[in-house]
UniProtKB/TrEMBL annotation:
Family note: Belongs to the LysR transcriptional regulatory family.
UniProt xrefs under Gene3D superfamilies: Periplasmic binding protein-like II (3.40.190.10), Winged helix-like DNA-binding domain superfamily/Winged helix DNA-binding domain (1.10.10.10)
GO MF annotation: an example: DNA-binding transcription factor activity
Keyword annotations from UniProtKB, A to Z: DNA-binding, Transcription, Transcription regulation
Presence of keyword Transcription regulation: yes
Top-level taxon of the source organism: Bacteria
HTH lysR-type domain sequence ranges: 1-58
Name used for this protein in its record: DNA-binding transcriptional LysR family regulator
SUPFAM superfamilies: Periplasmic binding protein-like II, Winged helix' DNA-binding domain
Length: 281
């Protein structure tokens, strides 16, 4: 059974005439008649009462015509999912650095449910370098990471946000150790590059931590000073002295060039609630 036969049946049911259906479908009358006889043979039932002129649908024919409407509507929906103007659809694997997930995920998931009803995302968190490598390997479809350079070969960076780094120091005169976000991570490398120009911080006793929440809690307790993106320091509950630095943290969406999510990167950036700019290698 072919859907073109069902489309012909639908037109006959709508117009009440083989001849008019043939004209509508740009077919010959004999071709329409042969299609319907073939459909009846496949269904093993009479769809038309041919004792009348023109032939009329039998009760079975009317039920089949109604069911054909449902089948053809489903076909149209499938074509809409896959056509060149179709919205993004499918199941995708998205990675996020933990420090950005709390900030971005709630609004993103709400936006996806509203604007991309045929799309699902399987989520995982990790370090920037690890996640970008998984995108390059094809193990992830995209990832939100801290950029520490240009995209890996075959990849693209879509800028999500640029956050200024802030030196945060608890009130008081006592020298304090430096709370360093793990320098093996994306944001940690950005901070380490800034420390190279700041001997007062570079040479201070150092405590290495790998969670923003832990660093902010230590800052609140007054046991150390730190450098973090301004937006992360907004979690602090206690006042601190803030000095804006020249360095910026760039949060990017990593995709592989030519993939479905790469073609949709600008829209994904909008769903993440930011304005995007693109760079690629």
């Amino acid at each position: 059974m072919q859907n073109r036969d069902l489309r012909t049946l639908r037109e006959i049911a709508r117009l009440g005439s083989f001849r008019e259906a043939a004209e509508r479908l740009n077919m010959t009358l004999s071709a329409v008649s042969m299609q319907m006889k073939a459909l009846e043979a496949q269904l093993d039932g009479a769809l038309f009462d041919r004792s009348t002129r023109p032939p009329r649908l039998t009760p079975l024919g009317r039920r089949v015509a109604e069911a054909a409407d449902e089948v053809l509507a489903a076909e149209d929906r499938l074509r809409a999912l896959a056509g060149p103007e179709a919205p993004l659809a499918g199941r995708f694997r998205l990675g996020l650095v933990a420090s950005a997930s709390a900030r971005l995920l709630p609004d993103f998931l709400q936006s996806v449910a509203r604007d991309l009803p045929h799309t699902r995302f399987d989520l995982r968190t990790g370090l920037s370098e690890q996640l970008e490598g998984l995108v390059a390997e094809g193990a992830l479809d995209a990832a939100v990471v801290t950029a520490t350079g240009v995209a890996l070969g075959g990849g693209r960076h879509t800028l999500l946000a640029r956050d200024r780094l802030i030196l945060a120091v608890p009130p008081g005169e006592a020298p304090l150790p430096f709370l360093h976000f793990a320098p093996t991570t994306g944001i940690g490398r950005v901070i380490a590059a800034e420390l190279a120009h700041r001997p007062d911080l570079r040479d201070a006793p150092r405590i290495v931590l790998d969670h923003v929440e832990t660093i902010v809690a230590c800052l609140d307790a007054g046991v150390g000073r730190t450098v973090l993106p301004e937006i992360d320091l907004a979690r602090a509950r206690q006042p601190f002295d803030a000095t804006a630095l020249d360095a910026m943290r760039s949060l990017v969406l990593v995709t592989r060039i030519g993939t479905p999510l790469d073609a949709y990167a600008e829209r994904l950036a909008a769903l993440l609630g930011v304005r995007s700019a693109i760079s690629a290698t």
